[in-house]
């Protein structure tokens, strides 16, 4: 059974998968207004251009939609500013790099991954912590503090 959408109707899709581009094209061609919510940096540009309205979606936006129980189960990486010597660095340093005016160090701290960002201000040390490597990478990327590609394999170990 095929249902033809009426002109003026709206559709909202949450995807970054190019496999949905034919669907977006067909809906737009039939007169439906299509809004695409997509993960930035991971979505094919063709599907983005095919939609009438485009909205990048961030982890923090998705977290706001979760129930309190789900927020606890799928927690985002924890970000906190520490003032030295309030928090000592773990001994298991895996990598370090510089980006813009900041220095970064990656540590394994028990079950968690920890990224420490230092700036020229010795009292400003941001700690970003999470046990899930992939979620940490995505969270860092969304906050413009990307872990360099050459260090991505570290989390697989």
Question: How is the topology of this model organized?
Answer:
Layout: E1 10-14, H1 21-29, E2 33-38, H2 45-50, E3 53-56, H3 59-65, H4 68-73, E4 78-82, E5 93-99, E6 102-109, E7 112-118, E8 125-130, H5 133-142
Parallel strand pairs: 1-2, 2-3
Antiparallel strand pairs: 4-8, 5-6, 6-7, 7-8
How would you explain this protein's 3D organization?
This protein has 157 residues and is α/β, with parallel strands linked by helices. The protein has two domains: 10-57, Rossmann fold; 76-156. It has helices spanning 21-29, 45-50, 59-65, 68-73, 133-142, and strands spanning 10-14, 33-38, 53-56, 78-82, 93-99, 102-109, 112-118, 125-130. Strands 4-8-7-6-5 form a five-stranded antiparallel sheet, covered by helices on one side. Strands 1-2-3 form a three-stranded parallel sheet. The chain is elongated and about 60 Å long. It starts with 9 loop residues before the first strand and ends in a 15-residue tail after the last helix. The model has no long low-confidence stretch (mean pLDDT 86). This is NYN domain-containing protein. It comes from Phreatobacter stygius.
